[in-house]
Amino acid sequence: EAQVTQNPRYLITVTGKKLTVTCSQNMNHEYMSWYRQDPGLGLRQIYYSMNVEVTDKGDVPEGYKVSRKEKRNFPLILESPSPNQTSLYFCASSLGLPNTGELFFGEGSRLTVL
Amino acid sequence: EDQVTQSPEALRLQEGESSSLNCSYTVSGLRGLFWYRQDPGKGPEFLFTLYSAGEEKEKERLKATLTKKESFLHITAPKPEDSATYLCATNQAGTALIFGKGTTLSVSS
Q1: CB B95 to CB A97 under 8 A?
Q2: Do A105 and B45 touch (CB under 8 A)?
Q3: Interval B37-90: pLDDT, tens
Q4: What residues of chain B lie within 8 A of the CB of A21, using their CB?
Q5: Which of B43, B89, B91 sits opposite A107 (nearest CB)?
Q6: DSSP assignment of B45-79, as one string?
Q7: Which of A106, B7, B61, B93 has its CA 20 to 30 A from that of B107?
C-alpha cells in the first residue's frame, strides 16, 4: 500500500530536549516536504527536498533541521524545542510537485512542548 | 505576495442541500489550483487539479471549477460523509503548495 509514515504520532516533551520526527514514503517520490498546521494559520511549509541531498527552507524554517540521505526518508529535527513549536506536523511526498500538485500526506504528528 | 483565501470558514448544510465553497487567489503565474479534503485527525487527501480558466473536474458529488481569480467547489446533494475540511492550494514556484485556511463543512441528516 502506497503511504507516507510518520513517527511518533503523538509526543509530549519539554523545552530544550532534542527530538526527531521520522518520515518515510514507499512510492519512490523525489519531492518531500514538512508542514505544520496551526489553528487560524493553516498549513505552512517548514522545509522541502527536491531529491536526495537537496533540501531548502520553506516559509517557517526557524528552529528546525532536516536531512535527506535516502530517497525514502526525510526526518524533521528539533534541536532545542520551544513551546511555540507545539503544533500538528505533516510530512508529504510527491512524484512531481510542479506538474500535478498532488501531495501524499502522512497521518500527522501532534507535538506538545511544555 | 501570493495568497489563497477561502470562504466561508464554516458551512452547515442539511443532507441534500447543495452549496458552493469559494477559493480566491492572488498568484503571479498560476501553475495550478488544487483541492484537498481533510478529515479530523488525518492528513489532507488530494481531490482535484485545475490548470486553466474554464476547466472543471468532477468526483461523485463534488465539482471544482476555475476562473481567472477564483475557484469553486460545488457540492451537490451532500451526505453526512462529505463532512470535512476542504482546502484549496496553489503551486508556488514549483517548490511548495500555498494552502488556504480551509472551509469546514458539516452535513447533518
Answers
A1: yes
A2: yes
A3: 999 989 999 999 998 899 999 999 999 999 988 999 999 999 999 999 999 998
A4: none
A5: B43
A6: EEEEEE-STT-EEEETTEEEEE-SSEEEEEE-S--
A7: A106
Report whether B100 contacts A56 (CB < 8 A). Answer: no
pLDDT digits (tens, 9 = 90+) for B91-102: 877 677 889 999
Which residue among B43, B89, B94 sits closest to A98, beta carbon to beta carbon? B94
Distance from CA of A14 to the nearest CA of B (A): 23
Phi and psi at residue B29, to the nearest 5°: 70, 65
pLDDT tens, position by position, B20-32:
999 999 877 777 8
User: B79 — phi, psi (to 5°)?
Assistant: -115, 165
